[in-house]
Amino acid sequence: DAKTTQPPSMDCAEGRAANLPCNHSTISGNEYVYWYRQIHSQGPQYIIHGLKNNETNEMASLIITEDRKSSTLILPHATLRDTAVYYCIVRVNNDMRFGAGTRLTVKP
Amino acid sequence: NAGVTQTPKFQVLKTGQSMTLQCAQDMNHNSMYWYRQDPGMGLRLIYYSASEGTTDKGEVPNGYNVSRLNKREFSLRLESAAPSQTSVYFCASSEARLGSKNIQYFGAGTRLSVL
Predict the structure, then answer these.
(1) Cα angle vertex A71, ends A46, B38, to 5°?
(2) In chain B, what residues touch A96 (CB-CB under 8 Å)?
(3) Which SS3 state, helix, strand or coil, does residue A82 take?
(4) N or C: which end of chain A has fewer CB within 10 A?
(5) Closest to B42 (Cβ–Cβ): which among A41, A46, A99?
(6) Cβ A100–B42 below 8 Å, yes or no?
(7) What is the helix (H) or strand (E) element at residue A59, kind and residue range?
(8) Interchain contact A39–B (C-beta under 8 A)
């Protein structure tokens, strides 16, 4: 399984875009990049995933570099309710490995 | 739709006691999972069941057993609880069919303390 590297913490001003980076330099050709978040001590919540193309949904955008060795999750207009731990995961099967994630704090 | 339901929400055990954590999903998903999360850390996979009738070990299976009772229910058993098993336990399920997004949906967690 490929491993991921994320900064331990980031701050963002309310209403601004939050850009969360993730390095996955050993990713294999058939492994997807998934992003989940965990608000306080709730169960993790799916945000978005992609293979090699950029993706957008109602929650966020995912930008994957052409060599697929890194990606960025973008929350276009962060709100206080987006304060959470964000996990970047690469996987191809049922075995999903969570790292420590990035603790995003959105400040008023 | 309740999604993924875990019971109990909280539990305190003494060392050596046994207990079963229950998980049920109403989304007709094929795959189910048990994770544990220790303070300040990410989730670690204990066991999973890719389909009804099958179970497989994850990253940290020692000290646990599981049962996929039917398509809806997946239980986690601690036969002889140890303080090292104090953690928050999350159950998840996913459709996990070929070509599907294979998104995992999580329950609210069971907070277990072993004294």
Answers:
(1) 50
(2) 33, 45, 104
(3) helix
(4) C
(5) A99
(6) yes
(7) none
(8) no
Task: Please name the residue that has the structure tokens 């930008």.
Answer: A63
Mean pLDDT split into 10-residue runs, chain B, 115 residues: 90 97 95 92 91 91 95 96 97 76 90 96
Tokens of A15: 């209403």
E strand or H helix at A102: strand A102-107
Give Cβ neighbours of residue A13 (< 8 Å, ≥ 6 apart).
A78, A106, A107
**Which residues 6+ apart lie within 8 Å of A36 measured at CB?**
A44, A45, A46, A47, A86, A87, A89, A98, B104
Determine, for residues A49 and B104 on separate chains, whether the beta-carbon distance falls below 8 Å.
Answer: no
| Residue B1: per-residue pLDDT | 61
- Closest-CA residue of B relative to A88 is B42
